[in-house]
Amino acid sequence: MSAGLAISLDAMGGDHAPDMVVRGADIARQRFPQVRFLFFGDEARLKPLLKDFPALAATSEIHHADTVIKMEDKPSQALRGGRGSSMRLAIDAVQSGSAHAVVSAGNTGALMAMAKFVLKTMPGIDRPAIASFFPTMRSESVMLDLGANIVCDASNLVQFAVMGNVFARTVLGVREPSTGLLNVGSEELKGHDAVREAAAILRQANLPGRFHGFVEGDDLAKGTVDVFVTDGFTGNVALKSIEGTVKLYGYFLRQSFGSALLAKLGYLLARPALNALRARVDPRRYNGAIFMGLNGICIKSHGGTDAFGFANAIGVAVDMVQNGAIENMKRDFDQMMTIPGAVTGTAAV
Amino acid sequence: MSAGLAISLDAMGGDHAPDMVVRGADIARQRFPQVRFLFFGDEARLKPLLKDFPALAATSEIHHADTVIKMEDKPSQALRGGRGSSMRLAIDAVQSGSAHAVVSAGNTGALMAMAKFVLKTMPGIDRPAIASFFPTMRSESVMLDLGANIVCDASNLVQFAVMGNVFARTVLGVREPSTGLLNVGSEELKGHDAVREAAAILRQANLPGRFHGFVEGDDLAKGTVDVFVTDGFTGNVALKSIEGTVKLYGYFLRQSFGSALLAKLGYLLARPALNALRARVDPRRYNGAIFMGLNGICIKSHGGTDAFGFANAIGVAVDMVQNGAIENMKRDFDQMMTIPGAVTGTAAV
């Protein structure tokens, strides 16, 4: 690998690929001049696109891929038949050392299956998890798992807590992150066995930062803790509930302003403030879900995002590489191995 | 029972009881002049309070209760030691036929345990569920369970679907409600066994309305279906996530308007519109969670609500009584008994 930092891109993944990927990379290039890009995809489409961005083209390579993983492909199909796909080759580049991280806006299930197969799960981790960060009343927090693991036991949750801790330090820049387990109440007796057992283990754990205990759904927006740990079913529903509510509120707000003349004038005067608000809750700012627990950095962008959102997903990848996320996680897991109940191999499947 | 409609009130439940309960009942009285109220609680405190509301006093009875269930009491404690409590006596009034429904802003777990013990679960239902309705982009929807059942199997979810269907017809006034099962994706293969099996059963079921299939977290705000069915863990986290996000957005909105002079002027002009928005997402408007599946109507108000919110919880009770919620549910359950997999007694505990 040459000097600098290389990011491999699945140029064909996402609703607006490959244009959106190339434009997103160009935005990221301006923010991170030290980064080189490896585009994997249809050379005949990528070459003319890159011509419009000479500065990007100068720090990029195009690697032709014959096929594309479709959004409706099953993970098993992608694994079997997707060896020559843009997604697979982009992941392979991380495995071979040609790139430091991979970013794709393609099929989530296929990306997880292939990344797990190629990069392998880190020692001490039973299952990788999907993590993402979001705005809170306090600042920003991370939640995981967001859908990779539908049913989780206590060991899985404990491992997610370690991964989330590393994420908070690496990407959010929190030196001593606080961690909470999502539950239906804050009392020790609340919830099902998995959360209660995970809490018992985490109370003894020696992670950097503090274990807060149980937190509830409304703590997500409050930002009560830096790291929210939950199973993939609950996390997926909670995050999408929040995203949907932000959209609903924005819709109600527009309706309110549209309803009277004075309100319309008020809207014009307040527009800069409202634009600032919109930017603050803009889902594109929080684009970039991270597959945690693999021997390599793999970032999943929203499939429907635009170039601005995709550039932010690249930004997450750059943060993780520059702050040594993988090395931090390996070190923390070695420490965690001494905690009873958090040892690998005890987790049920 | 004398003519008209009687509601029994746990006058001592909630952070601001008994004042809030009395004031809330007076607001409800103006909306529902046909309703009589039975206050259960400390007579020495209630008598002077009711003096300030002569019209309310004229249609109310005070029944003295010696004790109060505290917010931190365990359900088992409440069951054993709470026989003379305001909460228990208010529930007993429904069982004895003195009242048509009970409303309490007290301890949720204790209320559920006592209501289940006194009113008993309806034939055909394994476990009662907590339901609530909320604003959506389309109109209003109901979700259940919201925390009574942390772990649910397919039969539980199917029974929740029937209860939610009745709720949508009775309280929301939807003649043919659509129903969806919360999941991490809309494809048939997504999710864990319980949701997949429940979906298979509901596809054959002959409920009034339509079974939509799987829905996701962002469908809650969209109002994709009238009835959202899920386990109590996921439902509790999702609803609180939404409530927290609404508060966060309001906070961001105030911050945006506070940041510049022109924005402040815009805020003044837009204030009526913003007040309308606030009213639209006001959690007090959606106060009143319903314990579904019991042989009687029991409504749980938020513990921290004010008189306006409590009056809305009473309104939900009145709607359910007037629209025959219990009779509807019994009839629907008789029909459901013919559906394979939805039969009572097959549910795991």
Automatic annotation (TrEMBL), chains A, B:
Name the chemical reaction catalysed here. Answer: a fatty acyl-[ACP] + phosphate = an acyl phosphate + holo-[ACP]
Task: Supply the alphabetized keyword list.
Answer: Acyltransferase, Cytoplasm, Lipid biosynthesis, Lipid metabolism, Phospholipid biosynthesis, Phospholipid metabolism, Transferase
Identification of the protein by name: Phosphate acyltransferase
What family is this? Belongs to the PlsX family.
Q: Which PANTHER family match?
A: FATTY ACID/PHOSPHOLIPID SYNTHESIS PROTEIN PLSX, PHOSPHATE ACYLTRANSFERASE
In which pathway does this enzyme or protein participate?
Answer: Lipid metabolism; phospholipid metabolism
Gene Ontology MF: a single term: phosphate:acyl-[acyl carrier protein] acyltransferase activity
Which Enzyme Commission numbers does its entry carry?
A: 2.3.1.274
Coiled-coil stretches, from where to where?
A: none
Organism encoding this protein: Dongia soli
Functional note:
Catalyzes the reversible formation of acyl-phosphate (acyl-PO(4)) from acyl-[acyl-carrier-protein] (acyl-ACP). This enzyme utilizes acyl-ACP as fatty acyl donor, but not acyl-CoA.
Where would you find this protein in the cell?
Answer: Cytoplasm
Matching entries from Gene3D superfamilies are given as: Isopropylmalate Dehydrogenase (3.40.718.10)
What is the protein's quaternary organization?
Homodimer. Probably interacts with PlsY.
Asked if Ribosomal protein is a keyword of the record, the answer is no
Question: In this record, what's one Pfam family?
Answer: FA_synthesis
InterPro entries listed in its UniProt record: FA_synthesis, Phospholipid_synth_PlsX-like
* Major subcellular location class: cytoplasm
